[in-house]
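Quick start: read one record
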Amino acid sequence: MMVVVLIIGILASIGMPYYKKTVETSKATDSIAIGHMLSNSYRMFELDYPGVNLSGSMSNGCNSGTCSTSDYTACRLVRCNYVAPQDWDSSAYIFSVGLSCGGGNTACTRRNNGNGVYANWGYNFDSAGACFNLNGAPSCPQF
C-alpha cells in the first residue's frame, strides 16, 4: 500500500506542472483570440472615424452606456457595437486597445494576476493584424 501511495505521489508531482502549463496555455490562447478581435474592431473603428484615437483597458463598466462621439476610451468599441459585451473583469488577461498599447499596436493583452513564469505573459497586435508574444508566452498561431 505504501509503495502504491508513493508511486501516485511521484506521478502527481511530475504531472502537476504540465497540467498548470496546459491551463495557462489555454488561457493564453483565449487571450489571443480576443486580442485579435479587439485589434480588428479597432481597425474598423479607425476606418469609420479617421484620426480618432482610443485608449484604455476593457472592463465590465464598458458593457453599459451609450455610443458617444466624446468617448475616447476603449469602452467605445463595446458601446458602439464593434465588440460584443463580455465579462472582462473575470478574465485571466487584461485587454487594452489603442494608445495604451504603445508603439503602433492596435490592441494588447497582459496576464492578470499570473503566478510564476506565467505572470508576465502577454501579446501585442499591430495595425497590420500581426500578433507578437511577450515574456515567454506561447507563440501566436500562424495562419
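The helical segments are 2-48, 76-79.
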